[in-house]
Amino acid sequence: MCLGVPMQIKAIDDLMAVCEIDGVRREASLMMLDDVKIGDYVLIHAGFAIEKIDEAEAQLTLEALRDALEMGLFPE
Amino acid sequence: MKHQQEYRDPSLARAQLQAIHQTVVDYDHTITLMEVCGTHTMAIYQHGIRGLLPENIQLISGPGCPVCVTPVAYVDRAIALSRRPATIIATFGDMVRVPGSTSSLQQEQARGARVEIVYSSLDAVALAAVHPDQTVVFLGVGFETTAPTVAGALLTAEQKGLENFFVLCAHKTMPAAMAALVSDPELAVDGYLCPAHVSTIIGTEAYQPLAETYRVPCVVTGFEPLDILQGVLMLTRQVVAGQARVENQYRRVVKPIGNPKARQILDRVFEPCDANWRGIGSLPESGLQLRTAYARFDAARQLPVTVEPPVVQSGCLCGEILKGKARPDDCSLFQTTCTPEDPVGACMVSSEGTCAAAYKYGR
Amino acid sequence: MKSEIILLGHGSGGKLSHDLLEHLVLPLLSDRPADNQNDAAVLPPLCGRLALTTDSYVVDPVVFPGGNIGDLAIHGTINDLAMSGARPVAISVGLIIEEGLSVQTLRLILESMRSAADAAGVKIVTGDTKVVPRGKADKIFINTTGLGSIEHDLEITGSSARPGDRILINGTIGDHGMAVLSCREGLHLESPLATDSAPLHGLVALLIQAVGSDLHVLRDPTRGGVATTIKEIAQQSAVGVTLQETALPLHKTVAGACAILGLDPLFVANEGKLLAFVAPQAAERALAAMQNPPNGRHAAIIGEVTAVHAGKVQLATAIGGLRAIEMLAGEQLPRIC
To answer: What H or E segment, with its residue span, contains residue C216?
Structure first.
């Protein structure tokens, strides 16, 4: 019971946000989050934003993945 | 698709796989890693990950499908409720084809019951607001990712002063089940791939007691293929080094403390209780029930119905399969009597149940 | 037509029925005036083998982004004929209308059917109209039967796939199903998704011209999507198939909608797409033929037929793994797990 989709916040009206992924929009509740602003990426599950996506941490994860490639452990 | 596509890169995947193979190149034992989330079960099959791992790393599925561990009696009660006059059953799609003792919600719909699939419990609340003459019962199934959303829906229903909205609650919580599994002497779990979105709510700290008490490594892992491969690598490294720490692969979303606000919303509406896990039995403090303050929304208490005595077919190995002790192939009913079109146990009918996944993707 | 809604009387054969036919149905669908209609359409002789197909359309909602049940029916029947390698010649239309349907909606549907038929160069030659009481039909059900002429002697059948064949598709997958699903009221999605409903007989003619007898199988992946259709062909031809996940053309908005609802685009319906199984030496020519028409820029080779594992279909995943493709028990339902 864990399907979550990263979506971007396009508009906020009180505790509801309009979120978008590649042109598809859906409303989601922001009641579980603080300090959310337009442009943020959030994880949407069953119509609720359950967490913000941390861009810096995402970068670190991708870098670690790319490092493994560059370490020549596997020739291209 | 930002925050998704990047985690499907084939060359990065090959690098992770090479690193995994490298880690066990001189390791003589089998490493058994268990995932406890139906979304992981599905993702592992959908991307064909098992076949890419070294032979001595076994990925097994635990009771990670909340639909699968929901007792037959719950489905029977939902069916009985659907037969009430002027009643709408609002549910996630996952529950619609689950077999009860003699019927399913889909079959009841064919017989005239009103069953509405909703994407969000808030949509069920909206349905109740728009149809004041109908009783709307929402089926609250799911682990800690979903339970706070249902709590949020109940707070909304309370705010709106709705008197025709009810929840039939079967929510369960993960850590108790994981502890029960890892302390089972028949099961040799060397490490846990911890569920990404449950962990978003409960935090990586929630697994600390498990790792310490049972000396088993736990890695919170996302659902994209690169997440799963990186999670497997992190677990494998710990097992080979004899470590038992909690690590976080899914750092872009999961925090050590999880989401306290979501937990507050959950705690306002629900309280822990003992729960019956289909195939496992009763586990203490592993379920959620509505607090007394919200009893008026509890379908089980407010809408009495006659529920037929539960019928469980013999030969069904769902129990052993849910505990990771047996594979679908071990069950004599698998693919013969029990198929997705004609499921016997919930492991087959839920789209992310171990047997359904094996049937659809693994043959 | 005085009434704004369809009444039971409009189907009873009396004056109201004549009114409906004379002022709405016939002028829109037929070239012949109301006083020159016969019980059957008489057509000039056709050369070549005959192809006959019938389909009933019950889609809900009847009007969806980019189309409606009417042009869907015309395109669907044209495509069934085209998949047998036939040139569509004539179509019959059977309407079962629920009492209470708005005349405006009916007009829209009939106009679309006429436009679709005209654009494809096919005539609607005969039909039937019935009205049933409220609740006995879901707004409107349409049956279309199509007659086509096969003017070559190629054998294009589901059992003709051979090891080595390449599998081609003329564009993106899952567009129609997601467009219809995304406007289902209960799901509250907003999107620019639209159906891909389109006639394919022109494309089929180009393919036949380009590769002739190297074209072994043609089928349109409607209900059940690309996965189900390929599985059916693999079983019929007793061959194995390997598809390449990275080769599947997928519009990112369709991918986004599928991600939200937990659906697999491989199993979502298409209405303007065809799968062609082509001998390997002809694959590039077939692809070039597909890429020419206006909607062909996403045409692609998505897999191939193997001699092993007869009847089995597998997907080579983006990360290099393998996944089996099986038929689903029923339609996909939105899920949150």
So the answer is: strand C215-219
CA–CA gap between residue A52 and residue B274 (Å, rounded): 32
Residue identified by tokens 């998949």 is C83
Given a cut of 90, is residue C128 above it in pLDDT? Answer: yes
H helices, E strands: number in chain A: 1, 5
Indicate yes or no: CB of B230 within 8 angstroms of CB of A4. Answer: no
Query: DSSP letters along C57-78, please?
Result: E--SSSEETTEEHHHHHHHHHH
User: Would you state the pLDDT for residue C167?
Assistant: 98
CB contact under 8 A, C255 and A22: yes
Q: Under DSSP, is residue C123 helix (H, G, I), strand (E, B) or coil? A: strand
In C, which residues are within 8 Å of B51 by CB distance?
321-322
pLDDT band at B179 (very low <50, low <70, confident <90, very high): confident
**Which of B12, B61, B117, B139 is the mutation pick for testing C, counting most C CBs within 10 A?**
B117
> Of the candidates B191, B300, B206, B282, which has an alpha carbon nearest to the alpha carbon of residue B244?
B191
Task: State the amino acid at position B79 in one-letter form.
Answer: I
Q: Give the model confidence (pLDDT) of B137-154 as tens digits.
A: 999 999 999 999 999 999
Joined tokens for residue C218: 């043609």
How far apart, in whole angstroms, are the C-alpha atoms of residue B87 and residue C244?
Answer: 46
Residues of chain A found within 8 Å of residue B1, distances taken between Cβ atoms:
6, 21-22
Dihedral of CA atoms C46, C47, C49, C51 in degrees, nearest 10, equals -30
CA distances from C327 to B94, C234, C245, C331 (A): 18, 12, 17, 10
Q: Chain B contacts of A62, Cβ < 8 Å?
A: 6
For the residues A18-43, what does the mean pLDDT come to?
A: 97
How far lies B271's CA from each of B195, B292, B328, C320, in Å?
22, 9, 34, 45
User: How many residues are recorded in chain B?
Assistant: 363
Residue B145's nearest CA partner among B123, B184, B182, B172 is B172
How far, in Å, CA of B77 to CA of C126, rounded?
52
Percent of chain B having pLDDT more than 90? Answer: 74
pLDDT value of residue A76: 46
Nearest to C260 among A1, A2, A5 (CB): A5
Q: Which of C256, C323, C336 sits opposite B48 (nearest CB)?
A: C323
Side chain identity at residue C96, one-letter code: I
Residue A1 is predicted with a pLDDT of 58
pLDDT at B53 (0 to 100)? 97
Minimum Cα–Cα distance from C261: chain B residue = B119
Which residue from C265, C262, C217 is spatially nearest to C241, judged by alpha carbons?
Answer: C217
Query: How far off is chain A from B212, nearest CA to CA, in Å?
Result: 26
pTM for the full model? 0.93
Q: Does C193 touch chain A (CB under 8 A)?
A: yes
Question: In angstroms, what separates the C-alpha of A16 from chain C's closest C-alpha?
Answer: 14
- pLDDT (0 to 100) of residue C56: 97
Partner residues linked to C49 by β-bridges: C150
Asked if B342 and B302 count as a contact pair (C-beta separation under 8 A), the reply is no
Chain C: list its partners (3+ Cβ pairs within 8 Å): A, B
Q: How far apart are the first and last CA of chain A?
A: 37
Task: For residue B65, give the nearest of C255, C264, C337 by CB distance.
Answer: C337
Q: To probe the interface with C, which of A24, A48, A69, A76 has the most C CB atoms within 10 Å?
A: A24
CA distance C73 to C124: 12
How far away is chain B from the Cα of C259, in angstroms, using its nearest Cα? 10
Q: Span B266-282, mean pLDDT?
A: 92
| Residue B54 CB-half CA count within 13 A | 23
Look at residue C82 and give its three-state secondary structure: helix
